[in-house]
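Section: Multi-chain targets

For targets with more than one molecule, the full set of components is provided together so that the structure can be written out for the assembly as a whole rather than chain by chain. Components appear in the order listed by the source. The example entry contains two components.
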Amino acid sequence: MNRRSHFKFHLYVAGDAPNSAQAIANLASFCRTHLAERYEIEIVDVFREPKRALAEGIFMTPTLIALTPPPVRRIVGTLSHTQTVLLSLGLVGLAE
Amino acid sequence: MKSLPPPLVSATNKAPTGIAGFDEITGGGLPRGRTTLLVGGPGSGKTILALQFLAHGARDCAEPGIFVAFEESSQRIVANAESFGWKLATLQKKKLFFLDAQPPPDLVQSGDFDLSGMLAALDAQIKTMGARRIVFDALDVVLALLPDPARRRQEIYRLHAWLLSRELTGIITAKAGGDDDSTAIQQPFGFMQFMVDCAVILNHSVAQGVSHRNLRVQKYRGSSFDENESPFLIGTSGLVVDAAHARLRVDAKVSNERVSSGVERLDTMLGGGYYRGASILITGFSGTAKTTLSGAFAEAACRRGERTLFVSFDSDRNEVIRNLASVGIRLDPYLDNGCLHMVSARSIAGSEETYLVRIKTLAKEHDARCVVIDPVSTWYKSGDDLTAQSVADRLIDWSKGDGITLVCTSLLDEMSNRTENGSPLQISALADTWIHLNYLMQAGERNRGLSIVKSRGTAHSNQVRELILSDTGVTLTDTYTAGGEVLMGTLRWEKERAERVAAEAAEANAKLKRVKLDAEEAELEVRLKSLQTELVAKQVEKALLVRSTQSHEGELSRGRTQMKELRGADATIAGGKEDSP
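Its structure, encoded as tokens over all components, is:
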């Protein structure tokens, strides 16, 4: 994994549901901690853009889609387990 | 939960499923605008039932539907359902939408989540297509991802509230626990059963190597329903549920019309034949001509032009046709003109319920007025007594309800020696007419005997008749009873011959006697004549005698008078003196 990879995230949330709000907060703090200056987050509200959620196959909220670097990964949930997120994004080992 | 449902669900508030029998059980279908829970083990038919509900809605009720597939991919579901002929592919464009919501196998989960995303997506889809029906297939798959029962329950609440607020007629399917089918429905679903308005349990069990499927409506708020387990099968066009007693049916019409049994003398014995719409049971050991008798009935029915279904469990249809042709019962012309439909049920594998539903379907397809099942006792083998009994009930119930004249044969086991005390399926108690066939072993031969054990509403002969099969047909003859024993076959023939000889001898005797009597009569007549002649002669003689005596006396008195005159004596004195000595 390239140390300089740029991360592009889509975070699908369900309005201001508690777990969605939590996911937004968790993602923001995660990125600040581990991906300083090389990330990009788009927050998609499924209530506002249901067709997009349908097309994207988002059935559980919150869902994080990591578009780049490839492969595309999906992480479902509030992202409260940082270790899992790191593992999934291939950032293990870089965290230290 | 936001909207309070009205207290009663009328038939117009039900969404028909299009599943034969199921709408009868539920009195019209699933509750419209409410949620139905479908619980069952693996392979119990949940997905098919749900899909059929959607397909029927989309095709026949102008109610587009959405299928949310949590477990199987939609392509596979559509492909699997292809064989049912629901034309899902054409419906799929506008009226049927499949949402693939299977959690990806490499799904990474970090923390809590909920189903809002899916519901929002569905909202958009519902608006686009105006969906009225929705199915969540295998909800348990996605719920399993949730960390604890409380969260699962919360998501179910969310889903249920969403369904109610959108006024969708919904089905949620869920697996029943594998170990103990009856009660061990996983915890959140146990709770779900309380929440939903209608719950249906599907069962698939195997008893003695035979598969049984049945379903039971566990609850249906605000509606009456059939609470019993109803067997069903997955047929060629979807589910077919066998409603135990047609709930909407009034009493079957009773007919006084007689239909021929195909054997003239049997009709006479029965006072004209079977009743139309009656159930006839023919019992007997193997080889007692049960099939022949039922074949005769089928032929007679076809000759009257009545559509007939002949289900044979024993032999292939061509064998039956050949065998019956050997005794002068020709079925092939009626097969050719379509009047008769013959099915070899050896090809139908399954439980007796399967047989029953198949037969019903076949009879409906053929529009049969007469049905022959040969032999019905096969069912006994493939299940337990209780099911067999209920199937027998339903068989009779169904045939009566549809006015079908039903002839069943039942094989009695020669070894078990259950001769007349009940046929295995207990149809004997339900059947209107029970004909028993048996063998009589006598003088080194077996002969077939026929007797009518019962025949409701008919003055029937109580005699045992001998059943004779020849290449010209089936006929019955009287039997002879001698010394308390029934004579049949050659013994009967001998007896008949003996009687004929005796009769001839008696006739000759009588002739001889008559001749003798004639002779005696003639002789007497002759004697009578000669006696009469003699009598006349005697009478003449007697008359002559009288006359001659009179003239003699006259002569004498005249002589005396002359003498007195000559003597000149006083007539009176002279006379007086003359008399004294």
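The first strand of chain B starts at residue 14 and ends at 15.
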